[in-house]
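Ticket closed. Logging final result for CENPT protein.
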Amino acid sequence: PVQLLLPKPVPRRSGPSQRKPREPQVARSLIKEVFSYFVKMPVTREAFKIVEKCSEKYFKQLSSDLEAYTSHAGRKTVEMADVEMLMRRQGLVTDKMPMNVLIERHLPLEYRKLLIPVAVSGNKVIP
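Final structure:
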């Protein structure tokens, strides 16, 4: 006699998930791509692991500083002024090197258009 083939029942998990929540990280491929762009020579795996740890610590510190500046100002959203204050405290933005000059030097044109207001015909300012 022919029997009908029934799918096997899948056991259900009971209770909370066994996985621990992980912190978000910057993709290794992105760190490697940016680092190799600036280094322009081969890098050992051990050296790259150190670069990866340093970049992770840098971004953690960066985000906690931005969070502190924002909460000190009584806001819940990070604004451009917070980023500029952080860059000024790091010595990247000075009176001789304003933020707009850094943006023009290091970012592609499509990002420049988003970050630097531009006056166009008709007396309009974009963005």
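The CA atoms of residues 37 and 115 lie 24 Å apart. No further action required.
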